């Protein structure tokens, strides 16, 4: 149920220079979704009446992602006044004037902060009737963070930014995580009073704390239980760390749901993937996007599936597949490359060193070895010979190959599309099929074989081949020259 007295502000206007990226920082993905999507999902779980995202750098790209993942979020543009205080001030101004509930402030670059932690923070804030409640963290190395300054009684008196801190303050190990709950009324009243006279020339949100203290309003700081939850992503190393943590949680979730994951450290599963019970994942497997895997499947090792559908009991080894459908009890790989539009029917097979694209291969049909099958339809129970190529491209246009059911094609065939092979037809080894093959026919296109007897003895005298040939004929003279 929506909490009419709660708003969430997501800060995402910062430049993110340390990412050294042309992509906005909050759009870098972890577990298949941009960081900001994770934060928006968490915000949504708090069931606030309003979600706002403050943008400035690459505002068009960031706001497009915001709308994609939270279409009811309010996008607030920050002006040229820098600082978290200004960002929140503008966001609060964008709330209805009569909103006087609580405001959760989080950063778009802290993807693993969860709704349970934030929900508890809101409850503590409300139970204490505080004006501000800061989620803090106690760190061994507090470098760079704002420090939580407390008086002798332990009450929070200020947050001092690292760059503005003296030695006494720098020695404090309790830091501001950058997530808070504020009374909206406190922000409305105090943010306009905050200036930019500090080491960074920015309007600090954290200055609200000292002002509240001056007016004797209660401020609390609550240390987070697990520091990694509040870790921000400022560079690619931190991006990888948080991605690995999230992946470990996702893998564990699947394990607890009955999926065997042999090597969690090398198994990467996007948040959006679903996997059925008793499915087994072997090392170096990446399951991405909208991939769904039914029960009893065996995936990997060394397999990447992006936006794929895998049926019950299917086996997919050493395979790279995108937008492919692999139906129940089919087998794929090793070393298969399934491109978009591949659909393999139940019990079918795409074997070693086979590439497919836009290919519907019917139930129990097989493409077992060394083939390229593109823009093709194969019926049921057919077998495509080793080394078959569908020549689907005439240099200008793509054409379709249609193979019926219960067809047996020879090894090393080329199907020059457009071409149709009827039900129950056969083709000989090495055939180049340029014309349609009627149902039940045997198609052959290779010229009849001619053997030129004695050709080697005559034309390659003295060679090892000639000697072997002569020996096979039982002849004595191995060297017709007599030398
Ligand atoms: C901020 C806190 C600091 C805390 C740290 C935790 C302030 C003044 N300091 O510092 O006490 O320990 O976070 O990581 O708040 N942002 C905007 N608009 C701006 C500036 C920043 O939206 O004008 C956003 C950023 O995109 C980011 C968040 O606010 O998501 C924090 O900004 P950042 O510059 O990283 O703050 P810090 O200096 O790290
Ligand atoms: Ca930061």
From TrEMBL:
The active site consists of 369 (proton acceptor)
Which cofactor does the UniProt annotation name? Answer: Mg(2+)
Q: Where in the cell is it found?
A: Cytoplasm
SUPFAM superfamilies reported for this sequence: Nucleotide-diphospho-sugar transferases, Trimeric LpxA-like enzymes
Entry EC no(s): 2.7.7.23, 2.3.1.157
Q: Where are the transmembrane segments?
A: none
Where is acetyl-CoA annotated to bind? 386, 392-393, 411, 429
- Give the matching CDD domains: GT2_GlmU_N_bac, LbH_GlmU_C
Which domain of life, per UniProt? Bacteria
Q: What class does this enzyme belong to in the EC scheme?
A: transferase
Similarity-based family: In the C-terminal section; belongs to the transferase hexapeptide repeat family. In the N-terminal section; belongs to the N-acetylglucosamine-1-phosphate uridyltransferase family.
Q: Which HAMAP family match?
A: GlmU (MF_01631)
Q: What is this protein called?
A: Bifunctional protein GlmU
Gene designation: glmU
């Amino acid at each position: 149920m929506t909490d009419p007295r709660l708003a969430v502000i997501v800060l995402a206007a910062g430049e993110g220079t340390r990412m050294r990226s042309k992509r906005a920082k909050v759009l870098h993905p972890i577990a298949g979704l941009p960081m900001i999507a994770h934060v928006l999902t968490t915000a949504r779980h708090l069931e606030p009446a309003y979600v706002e995202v403050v943008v400035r750098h690459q505002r068009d790209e960031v706001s497009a992602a915001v709308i994609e993942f939270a279409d009811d979020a309010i996008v607030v543009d920050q002006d040229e006044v820098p600082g978290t205080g200004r960002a929140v001030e503008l966001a609060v101004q964008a709330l209805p004037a009569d909103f006087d509930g609580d405001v959760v402030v989080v950063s778009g670059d802290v993807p693993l902060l969860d709704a349970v932690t934030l929900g508890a923070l809101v409850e503590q804030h409300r139970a204490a009737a505080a004006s501000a409640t800061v989620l803090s963290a106690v760190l061994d190395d507090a470098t760079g963070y704002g420090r939580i300054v407390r008086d002798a009684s332990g009450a929070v008196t200020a947050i001092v930014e690292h760059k503005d801190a003296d030695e006494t303050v720098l020695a404090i190990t309790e830091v501001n995580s950058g997530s808070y709950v504020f009374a909206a009324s406190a922000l409305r009243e105090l943010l306009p009073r905050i200036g930019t006279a500090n080491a960074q020339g920015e309007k600090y949100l954290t200055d609200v704390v000292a002002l509240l203290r001056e007016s004797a309003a209660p401020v609390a700081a609550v240390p987070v239980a697990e520091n990694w939850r509040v870790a921000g992503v400022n560079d690619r190393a931190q991006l990888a760390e948080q991605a690995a943590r999230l992946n470990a949680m996702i893998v564990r979730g699947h394990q607890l749901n009955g999926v065997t994951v042999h090597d969690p450290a090398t198994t990467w599963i996007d948040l959006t993937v679903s996997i059925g019970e008793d499915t087994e994942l072997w090392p170096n497997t990446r399951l991405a996007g909208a991939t769904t895997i039914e029960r009893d499947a065996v995936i990997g090792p060394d397999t990447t599936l992006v936006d794929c559908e895998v049926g019950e009991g299917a086996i997919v080894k050493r395979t790279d597949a995108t937008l492919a459908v692999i139906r129940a009890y089919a087998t794929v790989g090793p070393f298969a490359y399934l491109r978009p539009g591949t659909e393999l029917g139940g019990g079918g097979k795409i074997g070693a060193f086979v590439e497919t694209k836009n290919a519907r291969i019917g139930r129990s049909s097989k493409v077992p070895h060394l083939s390229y099958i593109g823009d093709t339809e194969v019926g049921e129970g057919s077998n495509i010979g080793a080394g078959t190529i569908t020549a689907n491209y005439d240099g200008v246009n793509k054409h379709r190959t249609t193979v019926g059911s219960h067809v047996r094609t020879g090894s090393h065939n080329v199907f020059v599309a457009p071409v149709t092979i009827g039900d129950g037809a056969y083709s000989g080894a090495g055939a180049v099929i340029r014309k349609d093959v009627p149902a039940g026919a045997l198609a052959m296109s290779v010229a009849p074989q001619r053997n030129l007897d004695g050709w080697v003895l005559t034309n390659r005298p003295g060679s090892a081949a000639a000697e072997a040939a002569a020996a096979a004929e039982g002849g004595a003279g191995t060297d017709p020259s007599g030398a």
